[in-house]
Structure formats: structure tokens, C-alpha cells
Amino acid sequence: MAVNYSVPAYFILILLFISRIRSTVGKSKPSTNFPPPNLLTLDFSERIRTDPLAIESASSDYGNIVHENPAAVLHPSSPQDIVSLIKFAYNNSDVGGEQLWIDVLKATMEHGLAPVAWTDYLYLTVGGTLSNAGISGQSFRYGPQISNVYEMDVVTGKGELVTCSPHKNSELFYAVLGGLGQFGIITRARIAIEPAPKRVKWVRMLYSDFSAFTKDQERLIAINGRRQSSALDYVEGSLLMNQGPPNNWRSSFFPSSDIPRIMSLVTQHGIIYCLEVAKYYDDSTQHSVPKELEQMYKGLSFISGFKLEKDVSFMDFLDRVRNGELKLQSQGLWDVPHPWLNLFLPKSRISDFNSGVFQDIVLKRNITTGPVLIYPMNRNK
């Protein structure tokens, strides 16, 4: 019997290219900027730093591509400090909220709660990701982070502190969310939270056929979008290529005993597509989750024998990229320029992207050592 599934309108691809060697691209130059003399006479002047350490710490973007020394660095103690600075500078500064998502997670977990939408990497600011989108494997179900905001305080380009929501100053609200900081600076956000689970069943399945891989992604986000009570909580995808080992800096998921046979598979096919899912659970659902996952596996077309599972704490799952970051830092590789490219692709062109980019460019030219991620998305989220 044929079953029709609603399919996602588009996929998002995240390609992170990390240089094999250190590059001189974007090296910072000695600062020729000097703060306006009257800047240090403002009420918050004691929170303005011009020392070399402060200047250096704020001189590079996250991807370590752009290097520009600021004239001074403000460490705001309240939204009012940002209001005062914007009024002083008027359209000449670009700052964001300072709270990290990892800190939000830790604070809410103390009360048995957690936000519903995340990014894969948690050491980013709330204001920063809400000024972009905030996409991860949970987005098929809850939408990106910007779809889970109820209210914000925003400092506008005129230095006005404005509270906005879908029902109050809504034009500003929707302009700021995903607005890349062009319409205001987020200083407070009220976000959706829910009871936090205790543990996670984390599963990866391997495919040699891209069409089977994407069809299974589409199927999973369609059926799990309808059955909310037993839905998967996370669906993502990635590439395994012969340029690097299956375990990359994002996570060390695969057991060492399975690495040889996985590498043999990658060598045979050039690219292996990895479908990654997760199901959260707690004491009340720990016995039903394995049965739900087994039922899900029956309809999938992964390579026989290449379904691997882990059971981890909720915190360890969400913070899974951190260990890889620390490993790269210890090797002096975290500060290597690493451009990060996000692309939204329509479902109708995803196969063309695989053949034209993954197969003909990434694989044949051996140009990347960084992860390539594929997120299936539902249009209505």
C-alpha cells in the first residue's frame, strides 16, 4: 500500500570548511583607531576598556576571517549602558546580547526545564543566534530559535529601548528576529521552554544512496510532525568522506571498534550519508522509547548492519560539540580561519546539489576537512 508523506519545502545545508594549515588571511593589523575623547567622560566610562587585551579579544569574528581592532570595548552591565552607547555613537556600533545558550541551559536545568530550540554549538549568545535564525536538528519540529520567541527588549538604531512582541511593536519584533543586527540589538528575549528530559537515545544510520537518505529524512519529519506524543526530537544529516575519520570534531559518536568497517564503507563509495536522530526520555518513558525506535527503523533504508546507538544524558547530547572544540584548541586549530556557510535549498534541487557540489566538487577536489550538515525542514515551522 502506498503511503503519502508531506515533504519538507527545503533543506538547509551547513558547510564548515576548516583550513588544514594556518593561514595569513585576515591577519589583524595594529589599530589606528582612537576612541573619541568624550567617550571616556560618559557615565559608564569605567566599563569601557582600551587596553591591548580587551582590544584583541574583540577584534575577530567567530569564523576568524575578519580582523579589525575596535577603538574601545564596552562591557555593559545593563541594557541602559547599550542605550547610552548607541545614542552616543548613533549607527556606528554593532553589538549583541551577551548571555550564552550554554548558560541558559544550565540555569533552566536547575529547575527541570529547558528551551525547545537549539543550535548545535551552545557557546553562542542568545542575541547573536536570534539575530540570525538558530537552526539545529530540532527545527523540523519546533522551527528555528527565532520561531520560539515571545517577547524581546531591543535597542534601536536611535538608541531607544523598545519592548516588542507579535502583538506589540510587531514590525520591529519580526524585523529584528533574523535581521542580522540591522534593525536593533537584542538585550532580553522571552523564549519557549518545556520540562527537560533526563536522557537521550542517540542513533546514527549510514546510507550509500543519497536519494534513499533524503527520502528517509523527509519521511521521518513528516510522520513525527503528526504524532507529537511519540515524535522524534532531533533529525539531522551529515557526510562521511574519505578526507577524514568518521569521528570529527563535532562529536566522537562511533565506537573505535566500528571505525575500520565504516572507513571501508567510505573508501568503497567515496561519500557516505549519515542520518542522525534522537529521542528524549525520562523515567516515565524509558521503557516505551526503545519500542518506538524499533518501529521507526522498519520503514528506513539504511545499510544493513550500520545502525549505531548511544544513550547519553540530555546535557551531554546538547553540549556534544564542546569536547571537539576543546580538542581543536589543544592542537592550536580552533583559531584557524573557518568560514561557515548556511544555504537553504528547495527539495526539488537537493539531488542536483548532491551531484554538482558533494560529488563533483567536495569529493573530487578534496577541498574540505570540516563537517557538512544537512537539515530537513518543514515549511510550516
UniProtKB/TrEMBL annotation:
Pfam families: Cytokin-bind, FAD_binding_4. It catalyses: N(6)-dimethylallyladenine + A + H2O = 3-methyl-2-butenal + adenine + AH2. Its cofactor is FAD. Residues 1-23 form the signal peptide. Its EC number is 1.5.99.12. Transmembrane segments: none annotated. One of its GO terms (molecular function) is FAD binding. Keywords: FAD, Flavoprotein, Oxidoreductase, Signal. It is an enzyme of class 1 (oxidoreductase). Residues 26-196 form the FAD-binding PCMH-type domain. GO terms for biological process: cytokinin metabolic process. InterPro entries: Cytok_DH_C_sf, Cytokinin_DH_FAD/cytokin-bd, FAD-bd_PCMH, FAD-bd_PCMH-like_sf, FAD-bd_PCMH_sub1, FAD-bd_PCMH_sub2, FAD-linked_Oxase-like_C, FAD-linked_Oxidoreductases_BP. Belongs to the oxygen-dependent FAD-linked oxidoreductase family. PANTHER family: CYTOKININ DEHYDROGENASE 3 (PTHR13878:SF127), GULONOLACTONE OXIDASE (PTHR13878). This is cytokinin dehydrogenase. It comes from Manihot esculenta. The lineage of its organism: Eukaryota, Viridiplantae, Streptophyta, Embryophyta, Tracheophyta.
